[in-house]
Amino acid sequence: GNSVTQMEGPVTLSEEAFLTINCTYTATGYPSLFWYVQYPGEGLQLLLKATKADDKGSNKGFEATYRKETTSFHLEKGSVQVSDSAVYFCALSDTLSGGYQKVTFGTGTKLQVIP
Amino acid sequence: EAQVTQNPRYLITVTGKKLTVTCSQNMNHEYMSWYRQDPGLGLRQIYYSMNVEVTDKGDVPEGYKVSRKEKRNFPLILESPSPNQTSLYFCASSPRTFRGIGSNQPQHFGDGTRLSIL
User: Looking at residue B97, what is its pLDDT?
Assistant: First the structure.
């Protein structure tokens, strides 16, 4: 079956540091890839997505490129802020027979940004 | 405002006492799901529904029931809760996808329900 592997956290960075959170996946089909963010006490929110190979998703200064050759979707940001402190989930979505969209999540990576 | 609403947000209860967590969405989405979130395990799907009266098991369905009598509502039922069901639960919805168009619709999540079963 499909699976998503994320780097373990927590990741602690100083403000304005460069961020990379690694994500690799295994899938039998042609999945779409997502990054979700979870702020304390809240549900997951879509951060960005990419639907096919070589697509780059971007939002709020975060970027991730769908790399089919390395089955990766690493999240990057050039300069993190304290407000970026949250848990980040990598996910893939694939369509099952019958049309249902099955989503598989990674285990999440907690990011803490210190002033 | 487009949203997924879960109730209650927090609940402490005892083993064996039936409980229901409600979930409602106002986006007319066909698909709805329940997940549980546990440290080190990420989100695991409990049950999902493709439409009214159509539900199916996810990855960890044991000990849970669901129903989908109306499009907007998807309650999660614990008939006889046990301590290993202590967790953070999320309901999510998404619009229907069509074969050939791709599975690129994001999930919309509620704010979560923290259940503690003593």
Answer: 66
